[in-house]
Amino acid sequence: MKRVLFGVLALAVLGGIMVFAEQPRRKVHVIPEPVEVKHHRWHRSFEVTHAVSLEYDASQEGTAAVADFFDRQLQLLTGLHLGHNLPNVAKGIALVIDTTLNLPDEGYLLEVSRKGVLLRANSSSGLLYAAETFLQLMPQEAPYRVQSVTIKDYPRFGWRGAMLDVSRHFFPKEDVMRFLDILALHKINRFHWHLTDNHGWRIEIKKYPLLTEVAAWRADRLGQHWKKRLPQQEGEKATYGGYYTQDDIRQIVAYADRLGITVVPEIDMPGHTVAVFSAYPEFSCEGKRLTVPVGGVAIGNSVLCAGKEETFEFVENVLDEVLDLFPSKYIHIGGDEVSKTQWKKCPACQQRMAEEKLADEEELQSYFIRRVTRYLQTKGRVAVGWDEILQGGLADGAVVMSWRGYEGGREAARQGHDVIMTPSLMCYLNFYQANPEFEPSNRSAFVTSLRTAYSFDPVPQNMSKKLVDRILGAQACVWTEYIPDSHHLEYMLLPRLGATAEAMWSAPETRSWTHFLEKQREIRSIYGRLGYNFSRSSFRVDVKVNYLSNGAKIALESEQLDPVIRYTTDGTVPTAESPLYMGPFRIKERCQVMAALFRGDTLMESPTIQWVVPQNQAYRKQVEYVTPRFTKYRSGGAMALTDGKYGDKFRVNENWQGFEEKMEVVIDLEKVRDLKQIDLGFLQMTERKMLFPERLEVSSSIDGNTYSLVKIYDHIDPDERSLAYENFPVRTGGFKARYLKISAKTEPHKLIMIDEITVD
């Protein structure tokens, strides 16, 4: 720079390293956590006002774009607008690209004193990350004083990604750019764009115009549950959908580039191609024209025909236009969940297998992926695929994205392939993030809480350094069956994306769950000031109930630090005057516990509700299993249904008892008792073939031989949610019994999951 402010020069002494005496290290609230932070004895801070100038040399490529982004974000956060390269200004924020800095790629130095701020990096992306860090250091309200500090920072991994599925629901160009802003805030540098799938083709391909005229549209079922949508009817027009023109894509790619983000397109193949066959059925095995699915489970058997040369001509023509739009070195080709049913019946595919001496359809998939991978290599690009591309063998140079846990990544590394880790249970941000009773409907039965997302480490345990070196990085993924718009998308992303971002950027030794929680207040303030819709699910209170011989013990838990929990036992919403939770407490009467987290007098989130029945006459009573338990899942033993411990409503733990198709159990209450109510808890996890019973019967007996029917639940519909808990109460005017028989049945080859049985 020809002109540098005096205050900034003061920071640049001794190569830009501040020489003020240091205080003991204090934590700053920056996400993701920086590598090194130094606070200085010079307590006076730098105040950002309208009089501060943004200083940069416009001849340095990328600095002007960083300055514009910085100024735009600053205005959104504070209302301040800074001039650029203003003359005769005493204080400034200098943006400098310095290629002599001895820092890893995307690293930066941020130095703050009362006289000025110096942001230095060896690349424009590093400079942008320095700006993002500085913005996080600013207080929430004026005066905007930033403490005197030096931060040296660089990422742990080069691939820090986030995937957005725009096939299930189309997101307009402006929403995609807003998504990119969110990624930049979290120092994420790869946007994996899932552009094609069964439910819609979203990219303009000029050689195949029907892909956008036909395959980008489906019958409108917006507002209806994804899994219960009726297919497109004969004569019904397809009006829901959309696509990105090639000009749209160029604009998005350019915008991402200014934010230091590389856009990695995904054209899913050879499966997930129903939309293709709505426009060009000749590339399928059957040659049958299909309609674009409106929701639910798409036609799984539909797959590109691997036996026709025309198929590969189509794929290569599509990829040629994709490569012209996306400069990314990496191109994602899908390769997941490929059904081989059509290939087994297709004469052309069978002939291909014979000609290529392929042993089975797994090797035919390998042939397909290898052929596409090598085509990309001739264009100077690298193919990326989901971990199923390992099936049958993989071409040299392909990258594996491991989503079904870590093992696909391990195996790929063992075979000499680079790996991107995105194990679904930790990295799929479309999963529930808290108790499903309080969350929007979801495609999955799994819960990925904020803490679970934070526990993710891209490097699995017990992996040799040689294999670890194959890990390029990791990414978060968002599938959008149940996410129809940007508002909902942001709710699912935030704040969990910050947890994943820290796992990808920060070294393990710098990470701390408690410190991450401390930083949540500041990052949530930034989300709010930027207008993002973030989830508050992390503020929910968990109610844990354990029965005792003469009552029940209630424990209230929160993943927040030092939570202030207030509760009631009369079914009223807690207030600032409600009892303060000090530890587990006992109750002796039936009640409804409501518990919530507070900050001062402010209720942080709507309360959690739990019915408690302490006068449980079935507690620790013997259970006879007339039908055997399903042994695949863990079981707490014969007493699990009456041990006073509720099964986890988020997942299958040892308290649940499973039965295949039907169940019948008998409980001996040891003596004839007066009974008023029986409560039966059932779990539904459709992805694991667990459903609520279609029919439920409760009968009672005095002698254990003759039973009388007490209650029937008939024609029970499955819950719309994939994951749900339901209590089935049996209320009566009172009766006497010693034995209780509970019988239930569900669909063939499905499971019934039950716990806990309580009797009042």
Overview of this structure, please?
- This protein is of the alpha/beta class and 760 residues long.
- The chain contains 19 helices and 35 strands.
- The strands form 8 sheets. It has an 8-stranded parallel beta barrel with strand order 10-11-16-17-18-19-20-21, surrounded by 6 helices. A 7-stranded mixed β-sheet has the order 1-9-6-7-5-3-4.
- Strand 19, helix 13 (407-414) and strand 20 form a beta-alpha-beta unit.
- Helix 3 runs parallel beside helix 4 (124-137).
- The longest helix has 18 residues, at 361-378.
- The protein is globular, with a radius of gyration of 30 Å.
- The model is unreliable at 1-25 (pLDDT under 50).
Summarize the structure.
With 760 residues, the chain is of the alpha/beta class. The strands form eight sheets. An eight-stranded parallel β-barrel has the order 10-11-16-17-18-19-20-21, surrounded by six helices. Strands 1-9-6-7-5-3-4 form a seven-stranded mixed β-sheet. Strands 29, 30, 31, 32, 33, 34 and 35 form a seven-stranded antiparallel β-sheet that branches.
Unreliable spans are: 1-25
Largest sheet: 8 strands, parallel, barrel
- Give the strand tally: 35
Computed CA radius of gyration, to the nearest angstrom: 30 Å
* Beta-strand residue fraction: 25-35%
Report the structural category: alpha/beta
State the end-to-end CA separation. 80 Å
Q: Choose one word for the global shape.
A: globular
Average pLDDT figure: 91
> What's the number of helices?
19
Proportion in helices = 10-25%
Please give the order of strands in the largest beta sheet.
10-11-16-17-18-19-20-21
